[in-house]
Specification:
It is a single chain. The chain is an alpha+beta fold and 182 residues long. It has one domain: Gcn5-related N-acetyltransferase (GNAT) (Aminopeptidase, 3-Layer(aba) Sandwich). It contains 5 helices and 9 strands; from the N terminus they run βαααβββββαβαββ. Helix 2 packs across helix 3. The longest helix has 15 residues. The structure holds coenzyme A. Coenzyme A (COA) binds next to strand 6, helix 4 and helix 5.
Length: 182
């Protein structure tokens, strides 16, 4: 199956909406699905514009902070499969390690365990390379076996842990993942 990364667009918005209706959360750390569904239904074009251009982002702990530049992609196998995002700071090749890292992804439940996240991350690493990054930091929850495997399959090198900000008793595992030219 061929996996393609698409820029968010009006054409795919109905499929994105369907995924939200079925309970998918675009954000792995907090369920922002219901909030996105409301905004999308209120004004689809504005929703898309915000998705692409918003200057702020809400953290899982509720804080609204300036949004880093980001490449956001929707993942397709011919149907909508999820999203993956590479966030970074212009001119800063090594972000200070944080508990969230450079790359976030979420696959809709009905497309999981087909290798899609592994392949989407492989493709996003090309984008990171094109932005001048030799490696990116990616984190996952200590009990997220699927995500840990996705990171390791892409060459992730473990680099310690952080306290989890929203799940008491859990930690975030941090990895550095080398990027490659396309
Ligand atoms: C974690 C997640 C991204 C994995 O996506 P995916 O497309 O199913 O992953 P892949 O199919 O590429 O699987 C990679 C490996 O992880 C394994 N895996 C996937 N989901 C798993 C799970 N829930 N439990 C254990 N292993 C799992 C696969 O079997 C595969 O193992 P293999 O390489 O030994 O065959 C997906 O479950 C998801 O979106 N979860 C909710 C959001 C999330 O956790 N995002 C990541 C935040 S860091």
């Amino acid at each position: 199956m061929t996996i393609t990364l698409l820029r968010p667009c009006l054409e795919w918005l109905p499929a994105y909406e369907q995924a939200l209706i079925q309970g998918w959360s675009p954000n792995a750390d907090s369920n922002n699905g219901p909030q996105q569904l409301m905004a999308l239904r209120a004004d689809p074009e504005r929703f898309l514009h915000e998705l692409r251009n918003s200057t702020t982002v809400r953290q899982p702990d509720g804080r609204v902070v300036p949004r880093l530049p980001a490449h956001d992609f929707w993942i397709s196998d011919g149907e909508f499969c999820g999203r993956i995002s590479f966030r970074f700071e212009w001119g800063v090749k090594e972000l200070t390690p944080t508990s969230y890292g450079h790359v976030g992804y979420s696959i809709v439940p009905w497309k999981q365990r087909r290798g899609y996240a592994t392949e989407a991350l492989r493709q996003v690493l090309f984008v990171a390379h094109e932005e001048g990054f030799a490696r990116v930091q990616i984190t996952c929850d200590d009990d997220n076996e699927g995500s840990r495997k996705v990171i390791l399959a892409n060459g992730g090198i473990p680099d310690g842990t952080f306290p989890h900000l929203t799940r008491p008793g859990h930690r975030k595992l941090s990895f550095w993942v080398p990027t490659h030219a396309r």
